[in-house]
Amino acid sequence: MIKIMVATDLSERSAHALQRAVQLIRRQGGGEWTLVHVIDDDAPAEHVASQVQQAETLLQAQAERLAEQAGSKPRVIVASGDVAEVLVESAQGSGAELLVVGAHRKSSLRDFFVGTTLERVVRASHLPVLRVNGPVTHEYKHALLALDLSRISLQAASRARDLGLLDPQNFDAASALEPVSPGVMLEASLSAQVLETQREDLRKQILERLGQDGLNLTSERLQIHVGSPESVIDEALKRSSADLLVLGTHAREGVSRLVLGSVASRLLATQDVDALIVPPAR
What we know:
- Helix 1 packs parallel to helix 2 (about 45-70), helix 3 (about 85-95) packs parallel to helix 4 and helix 7 runs parallel beside helix 8.
- The chain has eight helices and ten strands.
- It has helices at about 10-25, 45-70, 85-95, 115-125, 150-160, 190-210, 230-240, 265-270; strands spanning about 5, 35-40, 75-80, 100, 130, 145, 170-175, 220-225, 245-250, 275-280.
- One of its GO terms (molecular function) is ATP binding.
C-alpha cells in the first residue's frame, strides 16, 4: 500500500487534494495517510500557538469525516515554521511515498510550484508530488507522459505506474524533437528527410526503453513533433484528453531544471490538468 501525505491550508483547493487522497486510499483498500498543515510563525508566539490549536481542532474533526470516506483515518500534523522544512520532516517521519497538494494560489504554499519550496521538498525528500487542480469526479483514467531519452524521464513513468497513477495499458506519451543542427540551412526536401529520420530514431529508442520497464506503448500513442517541449506537450494534452500529466525532474535542481527543460515549469503554471512531478528515487 502507498503511504500518502497531504499538505493542506484548509482552503477549497486543499479540499480537492484531500478528496483525491481519499480516492487513492479507498482504491487500495485503506492504508496509512497523513494530513499536514503549516502555520506561519512570523507572528507573536501566543498568536501562533492559538492558530496551531484551532487548526488542529479543525483537522481532527475533518479526519474523522475523511475516515468514513476513505476507510482509514489519517494522522494529523499541525506545526509552525518553514513550509518546506515541516513537509520534509513530516514525510520522513511518516514514511510517505507520495505528497498530494492542491493548486494553491493565495496561501503560504502559493509559490509551491514556481519557487524554492518545491525545489527544497523534492531535493530533500525525493517525494513524488501530485498537484490536484480541481474537483475530483473520477479516478485517473488516462495519463500523458512527457518524455525525453534521459534515465530520469523514463523512470518517472515506472514510478507513476507503481504509485497506481498510470495504467500501463492506457496512456499516451509526448516528446519534442529538436533538429540536430538547427543553425544549418538545408534544402526543404533534405531537411524533411533528416527530421523524419530523427523522429523515427527517437520513437524507436523511447518505445524500446519503455518496453524494458514493462510499459508497452504502441507507436500510435507516442506523439513526437518538432518544436519546444512546452508547445509539443500542450498540443499533446489537447489531442489525448489526458487527465494526468507526468513529468520527471532532477531532484538536485528542482523545478528550474525539469528533464524537459525550464519551460516545463511554465507548463505547471499554465496547464489545468493534474500533474505528477517525479524525482529520481534515492
